[in-house]
């Protein structure tokens, strides 16, 4: 959901897909919602925990209750999206991902 000039705006799909494939042990579900005319992607655990790798782009809480489960475009990790490799995006934008633990 590209709603502003924040560096993470427009990267929700590629970062969610990267995190999903880098952490299969979490058994996360891809989620998507349309809000204010734009599309936003994030991940959700079975217990409802939201993992939104680009949440910092929003100045107000995103309405995750509008989301629906939706698979990614491919079953295997994409080699590149929008010119970015997944590992590069996660390392540059989400340094905390390497320390991630699920509640």
List keywords for this structure.
single chain; 103 residues; alpha+beta; 4-stranded antiparallel sheet; 2 helices; 4 strands; 17% strand; globular
Which SSEs are present, and which pair or pack?
Blueprint: H1 12-22, E1 29-35, E2 38-44, E3 50-51, E4 68-69, H2 86-93
Antiparallel strand pairs: 1-2, 1-4, 2-3
Summarize this structure briefly.
The protein has 103 residues and is of the alpha+beta class. It is built from two helices and four strands; from the N terminus they run αββββα. A four-stranded antiparallel beta sheet has the order 3-2-1-4, with helices on one face.
Structural write-up:
With 103 residues, this protein is an alpha+beta fold. The protein has one domain. Helix content is 18%, strand content 17%. It is built from two helices and four strands; from the N terminus they run H-E-E-E-E-H. It has helices at residues 12-22, 86-93; strands at residues 29-35, 38-44, 50-51, 68-69. Strands 3-2-1-4 form a four-stranded antiparallel sheet, with helices on one face. A hairpin with a 2-residue loop joins strand 1 and strand 2 (38-44). The longest helix is centred in the first third of the chain and has 11 residues, at 12-22. The chain starts with 11 loop residues before the first helix and ends in a 10-residue tail after the last helix. Mean pLDDT is 78; it is low at 86-101.
């Amino acid at each position: 959901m590209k709603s502003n000039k924040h560096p993470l705006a427009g990267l929700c799909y590629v970062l969610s897909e990267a995190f999903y494939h880098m952490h299969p042990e979490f058994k996360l579900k891809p989620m998507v919602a349309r809000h204010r005319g734009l599309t936003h992607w994030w991940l959700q655990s079975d217990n409802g925990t939201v993992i939104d790798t680009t949440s910092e782009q929003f100045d107000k809480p995103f309405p995750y209750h509008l989301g629906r489960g939706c698979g990614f475009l491919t079953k295997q990790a994409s080699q590149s999206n929008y010119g970015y490799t997944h590992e590069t995006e996660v390392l540059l934008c989400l340094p905390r991902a390497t320390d991630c633990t699920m509640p």
